[in-house]
Amino acid sequence: MEAKVTATVIPIHMTENRLSQNPLRLNRLLQLCSANLPVGGFSFSQGLEYAVEMGWVNNAKSTQEWISFNLNQSIAYTDLALLNRLQKSLVEDDFGSFHKWNQHALACRESNELYLADVAMGKALMRLLKDIQGIDSQHYVELIKEREISFVSAFALSAYLFGLDLNAAQSGFCWAYIDNQVAAATKLVPLGQTQGQNLLFELSEQVEQAIELANQLDDENIGASLPRLAMASAWHETQYTRLFRS
């Protein structure tokens, strides 16, 4: 009979970066950010499909501008700032604070499509966490029972259980977003594979700046409104042909 391997949460410090000294943590980060993570992120375009339909995005340059603007003006001001507070709540074992910031994340989704995509991916990641052998998630059952959970909240919990520090978690979240958008753009714009790789290279250079901005925000400044993104995701529902979910 095969013995079941369990592990406790790896203690982490919010400002400590151990990836360079710990190959296991690096592999956990790669696993969490992998396109193979079964959360359904590949099925959502986050408004990009309609932006292509309208001609707002039609080549490599406009694709870079679309993703860059959303990263620096939306992801930085919402998800990355909230990821900071969500992981701090976990470090301090403060479930009430975690619930508050999870609700804040959901309230920041400006269209029904963005909200549904966020919740669908969040729930999928929470289901996965419960089934991964080697993770002791029993202490977090109260969190797992959140009625609606944002993907960034589930990502924060996953990063914590995987023993990742804040910087690694935020970097990984940015990469997952950029990678998803570039993959969608290669199908929609369309772009060549080399153009896609160049975009990944260029966009990833903006991650450090986005994280620094996010970590300087006060609580009252968390949140962003991008009307064009909100309209693109809302109008996507009635788009005549769609490759991505609405």
UniProtKB/TrEMBL annotation:
Superkingdom, natural source: Bacteria
Annotated Pfam families: UreF
A GO MF term: nickel cation binding
Subcellular location: Cytoplasm
One GO CC term on file: cytoplasm
Keyword Cytoplasm attached: yes
Main location, first listed in the record: cytoplasm
InterPro entries found in the cross-reference section: UreF, UreF_sf
Record keywords: Chaperone, Cytoplasm, Nickel insertion
Function of the protein: Required for maturation of urease via the functional incorporation of the urease nickel metallocenter.
Cited PANTHER family: UREASE ACCESSORY PROTEIN F
Subunit structure as annotated in this protein's UniProt entry: UreD, UreF and UreG form a complex that acts as a GTP-hydrolysis-dependent molecular chaperone, activating the urease apoprotein by helping to assemble the nickel containing metallocenter of UreC. The UreE protein probably delivers the nickel.
Family statement: Belongs to the UreF family.
Protein name: Urease accessory protein UreF
Organism: Paraglaciecola arctica BSs20135
Lineage, uppermost ranks: Bacteria, Pseudomonadati, Pseudomonadota, Gammaproteobacteria, Alteromonadales
